[in-house]
Amino acid sequence: MPEIGEVARIVNYIRQHLVGRTLAVVKAQHDENVYGKVGTSATEFEKALAGKKVLGAKQQGKYFWLEMSSPPHPLMHFGMAGWFKIKGLETAYYKPTKPVPADEWPPKYWKFTLETLEESGKPVTEAAFVDFRRFARIRLIDCPAEEMRNTTPLKENGPDPVADRDILTVEWLAEICAKKHIPIKALLLDQANVSGIGNWVGDEIMYDAKIHPEQYSNTLSAAQITQLHKSIHYVCSLSVETLADSSKFPEEWLFKHRWGKGKKDSKNQLPNGARIVFMTVGGRTSAVVPSVQKKTGKVAGDVKREDLSESEADAVLRNGDEYKEPKLKAKAKAKGAKGTKKSQDDETVPEVSETKSTATSSKRSARAAKQKPTDSESEPVVKNAPITNGTPPTSRKRKPRNAQNHDAAEQSLNEEEPKSEEPTDADAELPKSKKRKPLAKTVARTAKKPMANTTKKRESTMRATNAEVASAEVDAPARRRSARVSGGGA
Predict the structure, then answer these.
(1) Cis peptide before 106 (omega within 30 of 0)
(2) Is 2 a catalytic residue?
C-alpha cells in the first residue's frame, strides 16, 4: 500500500505537471467500489473537473487532493494498489515486474483520465488514476480549499508526522500511548492516531527506536517514548524527502534487507549477521530484529522459536522472554494427538462392548427376578433403575416392544401367575392417567396370550375351516340325491 512517502511522490509529480494547467478533457468510468462507496459517481466527477484550473495539490498522510479553481475538490486515496500515472513519465516508486508498453494509453484499470489545454507553449499533459484491486476511493468535497482538512474523512484522521510537527509532540505521543493498551505498532498503523504510517514505515520506526512492535503502548517508558518520537519524525521525513526512492535510503535501514521472506536461498539477516524474523502485528506481517528490538514490557505475542538462531534464542531467554510453539506446529501436534486418541478409542471398543453386554444381561436377570414378587417384597420394577450388582449402568438399545413381550412370555410360560402388586407412594401421588402399571401384571397378561400360541391357533382354525368347507362340498351331491329320493317316496 502506498504510504506517506509514496503519496508525497505523486503530489510532487502533480505539482510539476498539472498545477497551473486547465483541464480540457476529463473522462471517468464508473466503479461502484471506487466512486459509489463514498457517495460519488463518474458522471459527477467529470462535470466537477472539466474546464477548471488546478491551483494546487496537498497531502495529509495517505490522502491527497487537488485544489481546483472552484469547489468541489477531488480527494483521493490509493487503497492497496492504486496509483497516479502521467503519460511519458515513470512515476512508479518501484520497478515493474512486467514492462508496460509506452504507447498504452489510457493505461489498464484506469478510473479517470485528465488532459490539459496546450497553453503558454506548454505541451498537453495527460494523467490517469489506476487501481486494479478497486480498494481506492475518489471523493468530491464541496468546501473552500482552505477548509479541506476540517472535513470528513480528513478531520477524523490523526496528525501528519511531516506537515503537523507542531502537533505530534513528545507529550502528545505519551498521552496517546498511555490511553491505549494495544501493541505499539498497531497504534501507529491506526490512521485515527497518526496519518501516513503503513507497514514498512512502521517496521522501520520500530527498528530505529529499538522497540518490539508487540509491546503494549502503555508499558513504554518515558525514554522509549522520547526515542519513538524521534524515530517517527526521522523515518517519515526522510521517506518524504526522497519521494520514497529506496535507492536513496540509508544502507542501515531495515527496508534494504527485509524483503527476503519466502524467497529461496534468502538469509533474512542484516549485514552484521543479525536475524530478521517475521510475525503478524496489527493484522500485518512485521519484520523484527530480536537482537535489537528487546521486549521490556508485556507483549501481545512472542517471536517464533524456529526463526531464531541458538545464540539469539539464548540472548532473548536471558532477557526473560518466553516462547510459544509456532501455530502450524501446534496445529499439527493437536492433529496428531487427535489421531492417537482415536486409535486408542478403537482399541477399547471391545471392552466397552463387553461391559455393555454384561450390563444388559444383568438387567435382564434382574428384570426376570422382579417378575415373581414375594409377599414381603412386592415393589414394582422402576424403569431405568440403577444396577446394583457392581457393573456400572450403560446406555443400551431397547428391543422392539413385541420382542420384549415375547421374551417375557417364553420365560413366564411355566411360572405361576404372580400376585397383584400394591401401588407405591409415588404412584399414589400421580394422576390416574399417569399411574404406572405393575410389570408383573403386564407379564402375566402376555403369558396368558403368548404370541407364538396365538399364531398357531389362528393357523389351526383356518385349517379346520378349510377342511369343513371341503367336506361340505364333497357331501353336497349325496345329500341332494337323498333329498330327492325321500321326496319322491312321499
Answers:
(1) yes
(2) yes
